[in-house]
Amino acid sequence: MLKKEIEKALNEQIATEAAASFLYLSLASWCDTKGFEGSAAFLYQQSDEERMHMLRLFHYINNTGGSAIAPEIKKQNYKISTLADAYRLVYKSEIKVTESVNELVDLCTKQKDYSTLNFIQWYVSEQYEEEVLMKSIIDKIELVGDDGKGLFMIDQYIKTIRKENAAAEAKGGQEA
Length: 176
Ligand code: OFO
Prior knowledge:
By secondary structure, the protein is mostly helical. The chain has a single domain (4-170), classed as Ferritin, core subunit, four-helix bundle (Ferritin, Up-down Bundle), CATH 1.20.1260.
Protein backbone atom coordinates (compact mmCIF):
# COMPACT_ATOMS: atom_id res chain seq x y z
CA MET A 1 0.00 0.00 0.00
CA LEU A 2 1.39 3.34 -1.07
CA LYS A 3 2.03 5.86 1.69
CA LYS A 4 0.20 9.16 1.23
CA GLU A 5 3.39 11.22 1.17
CA ILE A 6 4.88 9.00 -1.54
CA GLU A 7 1.64 9.06 -3.53
CA LYS A 8 1.67 12.87 -3.41
CA ALA A 9 5.29 13.04 -4.56
CA LEU A 10 4.62 10.59 -7.40
CA ASN A 11 1.65 12.65 -8.52
CA GLU A 12 3.92 15.71 -8.53
CA GLN A 13 6.33 13.75 -10.70
CA ILE A 14 3.44 13.06 -13.09
CA ALA A 15 3.02 16.82 -13.46
CA THR A 16 6.77 17.23 -14.00
CA GLU A 17 6.83 14.59 -16.76
CA ALA A 18 3.76 16.15 -18.39
CA ALA A 19 5.41 19.58 -18.36
CA ALA A 20 8.53 18.05 -19.95
CA SER A 21 6.37 16.42 -22.63
CA PHE A 22 4.76 19.75 -23.49
CA LEU A 23 8.07 21.59 -23.47
CA TYR A 24 9.41 19.12 -26.03
CA LEU A 25 6.22 19.44 -28.02
CA SER A 26 6.41 23.21 -28.24
CA LEU A 27 10.12 23.14 -29.13
CA ALA A 28 9.43 20.50 -31.79
CA SER A 29 6.87 22.84 -33.26
CA TRP A 30 9.38 25.73 -33.26
CA CYS A 31 11.96 23.54 -35.05
CA ASP A 32 9.30 22.41 -37.52
CA THR A 33 8.61 26.00 -38.54
CA LYS A 34 12.32 26.92 -38.82
CA GLY A 35 13.36 24.11 -41.17
CA PHE A 36 15.12 21.98 -38.55
CA GLU A 37 13.32 18.83 -39.56
CA GLY A 38 15.69 16.42 -37.82
CA SER A 39 15.28 18.23 -34.52
CA ALA A 40 11.53 18.49 -34.99
CA ALA A 41 11.27 14.70 -35.45
CA PHE A 42 13.58 14.10 -32.48
CA LEU A 43 11.73 16.48 -30.20
CA TYR A 44 8.28 15.20 -31.18
CA GLN A 45 9.50 11.75 -30.26
CA GLN A 46 10.96 13.00 -26.98
CA SER A 47 7.58 14.53 -26.22
CA ASP A 48 5.93 11.12 -26.71
CA GLU A 49 8.55 9.48 -24.52
CA GLU A 50 7.93 11.93 -21.70
CA ARG A 51 4.24 11.11 -21.92
CA MET A 52 5.18 7.44 -21.62
CA HIS A 53 7.21 8.29 -18.49
CA MET A 54 4.13 10.00 -17.11
CA LEU A 55 1.95 6.97 -17.86
CA ARG A 56 4.36 4.60 -16.10
CA LEU A 57 3.77 6.67 -12.97
CA PHE A 58 0.00 6.53 -13.49
CA HIS A 59 0.06 2.75 -13.63
CA TYR A 60 2.42 2.40 -10.69
CA ILE A 61 0.33 4.64 -8.43
CA ASN A 62 -2.96 2.98 -9.36
CA ASN A 63 -1.49 -0.54 -9.08
CA THR A 64 -0.23 0.14 -5.56
CA GLY A 65 -3.45 1.42 -4.04
CA GLY A 66 -3.10 5.13 -4.80
CA SER A 67 -4.91 7.42 -7.23
CA ALA A 68 -3.04 8.94 -10.15
CA ILE A 69 -4.15 12.44 -11.01
CA ALA A 70 -4.11 13.95 -14.51
CA PRO A 71 -2.13 17.18 -14.15
CA GLU A 72 -3.03 20.67 -15.22
CA ILE A 73 -0.82 21.89 -18.05
CA LYS A 74 0.39 25.44 -17.51
CA LYS A 75 1.35 27.67 -20.41
CA GLN A 76 5.12 27.82 -20.72
CA ASN A 77 6.62 31.19 -21.46
CA TYR A 78 10.07 31.23 -22.95
CA LYS A 79 11.92 32.99 -25.73
CA ILE A 80 14.15 31.18 -28.16
CA SER A 81 15.71 32.41 -31.36
CA THR A 82 18.29 29.75 -32.20
CA LEU A 83 18.57 25.97 -32.26
CA ALA A 84 21.11 26.21 -29.44
CA ASP A 85 18.55 28.11 -27.32
CA ALA A 86 16.05 25.29 -27.82
CA TYR A 87 18.46 22.60 -26.65
CA ARG A 88 19.75 24.72 -23.76
CA LEU A 89 16.17 25.05 -22.59
CA VAL A 90 15.66 21.29 -22.85
CA TYR A 91 18.91 20.62 -20.99
CA LYS A 92 17.94 23.00 -18.19
CA SER A 93 14.56 21.31 -17.95
CA GLU A 94 16.14 17.85 -17.80
CA ILE A 95 18.42 18.97 -14.95
CA LYS A 96 15.33 20.10 -13.02
CA VAL A 97 13.58 16.80 -13.70
CA THR A 98 16.66 14.97 -12.42
CA GLU A 99 16.48 17.02 -9.22
CA SER A 100 12.87 16.02 -8.68
CA VAL A 101 13.70 12.34 -9.34
CA ASN A 102 16.52 12.60 -6.80
CA GLU A 103 14.12 14.06 -4.25
CA LEU A 104 11.84 11.07 -4.83
CA VAL A 105 14.79 8.75 -4.20
CA ASP A 106 15.50 10.60 -0.93
CA LEU A 107 11.87 10.38 0.15
CA CYS A 108 11.58 6.66 -0.63
CA THR A 109 14.78 5.99 1.28
CA LYS A 110 13.62 7.99 4.31
CA GLN A 111 10.23 6.26 4.26
CA LYS A 112 11.82 2.84 3.68
CA ASP A 113 9.59 2.34 0.62
CA TYR A 114 11.97 0.05 -1.25
CA SER A 115 9.43 -1.01 -3.83
CA THR A 116 8.91 2.56 -5.04
CA LEU A 117 12.64 3.16 -4.75
CA ASN A 118 13.17 0.25 -7.13
CA PHE A 119 10.55 1.66 -9.51
CA ILE A 120 12.19 5.09 -9.45
CA GLN A 121 15.61 3.70 -10.36
CA TRP A 122 14.47 3.48 -13.98
CA TYR A 123 13.95 7.26 -13.96
CA VAL A 124 17.39 7.82 -12.43
CA SER A 125 19.02 5.98 -15.37
CA GLU A 126 16.75 7.65 -17.89
CA GLN A 127 17.63 11.13 -16.62
CA TYR A 128 21.33 10.38 -16.81
CA GLU A 129 20.97 9.28 -20.45
CA GLU A 130 18.90 12.32 -21.37
CA GLU A 131 21.25 14.80 -19.73
CA VAL A 132 24.24 13.26 -21.49
CA LEU A 133 22.40 13.25 -24.81
CA MET A 134 21.23 16.88 -24.60
CA LYS A 135 24.64 18.09 -23.47
CA SER A 136 26.28 16.32 -26.42
CA ILE A 137 23.85 17.96 -28.85
CA ILE A 138 24.55 21.41 -27.37
CA ASP A 139 28.30 20.81 -27.60
CA LYS A 140 27.98 19.98 -31.31
CA ILE A 141 25.78 22.98 -32.05
CA GLU A 142 28.24 25.26 -30.25
CA LEU A 143 31.08 23.87 -32.37
CA VAL A 144 29.51 25.19 -35.57
CA GLY A 145 28.07 28.42 -34.13
CA ASP A 146 25.86 30.25 -36.63
CA ASP A 147 27.16 28.45 -39.70
CA GLY A 148 24.08 27.44 -41.72
CA LYS A 149 25.68 24.42 -43.39
CA GLY A 150 27.05 23.19 -40.07
CA LEU A 151 23.65 23.54 -38.42
CA PHE A 152 22.05 21.65 -41.30
CA MET A 153 24.54 18.80 -40.84
CA ILE A 154 23.92 18.69 -37.10
CA ASP A 155 20.19 18.65 -37.67
CA GLN A 156 20.65 15.65 -39.96
CA TYR A 157 22.78 14.00 -37.29
CA ILE A 158 20.05 14.59 -34.69
CA LYS A 159 17.68 12.73 -37.00
CA THR A 160 19.94 9.66 -36.70
CA ILE A 161 20.35 9.73 -32.90
CA ARG A 162 16.57 9.73 -32.67
CA LYS A 163 16.60 6.08 -33.76
CA GLU A 164 19.30 5.03 -31.29
CA ASN A 165 17.38 6.81 -28.60
CA ALA A 166 14.19 4.97 -29.54
CA ALA A 167 15.98 1.63 -29.28
CA ALA A 168 17.36 2.44 -25.83
CA GLU A 169 13.94 3.67 -24.71
CA ALA A 170 12.20 0.52 -25.95
CA LYS A 171 14.68 -1.62 -24.05
CA GLY A 172 14.01 0.38 -20.86
CA GLY A 173 10.26 -0.02 -21.34
CA GLN A 174 10.50 -3.80 -21.69
CA GLU A 175 12.49 -4.07 -18.49
CA ALA A 176 9.83 -2.18 -16.52
FE1 OFO B 1 11.06 11.84 -18.22
O1 OFO B 1 12.72 11.78 -18.87
FE2 OFO B 1 13.53 13.43 -18.90
O2 OFO B 1 12.37 14.56 -18.33
